[in-house]
Amino acid sequence: MSATPVRLQLSATTRGARGKPPRHFVDLTPQERVEAVTALGEKPFRAKQLATHYFTHLTNDPEKMTDLPKASRDVLTGDLFPQLLTATRTLTADGGTTVKTLYHLFDDAKVESVLMRYANRTTLCVSSQAGCGLACSFCATGQLGLTRNLSTAEIVEQVREAARALAAGEVPGGATRLTNVVFMGMGEPLANYKAVMGTVRRLVAPAPDGLGMSARNVTVSTVGMVPAMDKLAGEGIPVTLALSLHAPDDELRSELVPVNTRWDVDDALDSARRYFDATGRRVSIEYALIRDVNDHAWRADLLGEKLAARGTGWVHCNPIPLNPTPGSRWTASDPAVEREFVARLRAHGIPTTIRDTRGSDIDGACGQLAAEEDQ
Ligand code: SAH
Predict the structure, then answer these.
(1) Burial class (CB in 10 A: 0-12, 13-18, 19+), 104
(2) Which of 107, 139, 299, 303 has the fewest CB atoms within 10 Å, i.e. the most exposed one?
(3) Which residue minimizes the CA distance to atom 1 of ligand 1?
(4) At what angle do helices 335-347 and 297-308 cross, to 10 degrees?
């Protein structure tokens, strides 16, 4: 273990300089919502009405809140529902069933989310930070640096907007519900722990205080920030944990994922195993297959050995062909090499499935759209 990477230390300063997003109803706990409503001179039960509009009807539009008197609606929504996200670009692929949205935040910071509709589920990939301070060399967001952490409401708003569009039948295939949320957009969720946990709580809280999603359908993906992983294990909310490993050896992983110099491969895998012990949730190992960089047969064997050494049934592997970022010298592995990599992991008894690459034709690799805007 060495010192904290410089970029991590910068994050707090940068955030301070950018200022905080305006307070939103969703940032408040149910008790604080009641207090905020009464501070505006309204009856306490209005808090529950607002929560029902937001989390059940998926609306923040005062015109639709017809069970509230007009004057109350205007006061309440004017104060408690500031507009946090403005969609400035939407790209679609797969016949409209993959939708990528670029949002501008109140301070003009930019984030993206990607909605993917499948036969039996719908998944939204959300951003937890504008940019990212962890500088993974193959990741588009990693090249941007960190702008700032998002607030809970800024993350939940991405989810509400996707759930609203699905419920309204705006995505081909008929009206449906949002079933899954993955923190695999821009940012490192565990570097913005408080706002991300606040989001998780609102996703899983039953209506009307939250969206009533199942914790297992919420995936927090991390570069391997061990203390935060251990903290997450103790929250009592068994979300799915994904660990972005990308190499089984410290020499290469420190190059691809610089935070490895702080928490190395063994530290991260031990913590992932502890997460399984605490929650009973099988951990996903993410592995972007980069041609001739990390896709060697010996690395598949080493990964298989390291995972199997920590037991069976606790982990599965999700290799994904690299989605090359603009200007990168790297490209995805050859399909035959990919098949061999998968076969070797399975031979070690590790359940392995290639992750879907939806949206790669619309710069689905996180951060690419925001990066393009900044050029
Ligand atoms: N910071 C978190 C979550 C955001 S990235 C994390 O690192 O896990 C979500 C996933 O996409 C991670 O596994 C990340 O390593 C992977 N990823 C980033 N850039 C990619 C690219 N160009 N091609 C394929 N996967 C990529």
Answers:
(1) middle
(2) 107
(3) 188
(4) 30
> Measured between alpha carbons, how far is 10 from 30 in angstroms, rounded to an integer?
33
pTM for this one? 0.93
Q: Select from 3.90.1570.10, 3.30.930.10, 3.40.50.2300, 3.20.20.70 the CATH code of 87-362.
A: 3.20.20.70
Question: Whole-angstrom Cα distance, residue 251 to residue 102?
Answer: 35
The class (CATH top level) of 25-80 is mainly alpha
State the Cα–Cα distance between residues 219 and 226, nearest whole angstrom.
16
In this predicted structure, what is the pLDDT of residue 362?
Answer: 64
Burial 256-289 (b: 16+ CB within 10 A, else e): bbbbbbbbbbebbbbbbbbbbeebebebbbbbbb
* Model pLDDT, residue 370: 54
Q: Where are the domains of the chain?
A: 25-80, 87-362
Q: What is the pLDDT of residue 258?
A: 98
Q: Whose CA is nearest to atom 4 of ligand 1?
A: 184
CA of 259 to the centre of ligand 1 (A): 14
Residues involved in catalysis = 112, 366
Q: What is the mean pLDDT of each run of 10 residues along the chain (375 residues)?
A: 33 50 96 97 97 97 94 95 96 93 96 94 96 94 94 98 98 97 96 98 96 98 98 98 98 98 98 98 97 98 98 96 88 96 98 81 56 48
State the distance from the centre of ligand 1 to the C-alpha of 182, rounded, in angstroms: 11
DSSP-assigned letters across all residues of 245-276: ---SSHHHHHHHSGGGGTS-HHHHHHHHHHHH
- Measured by CA distance, the residue closest to atom 5 of ligand 1 is 184
Q: Which atom of ligand 1 is nearest to the CA of 286?
A: 13
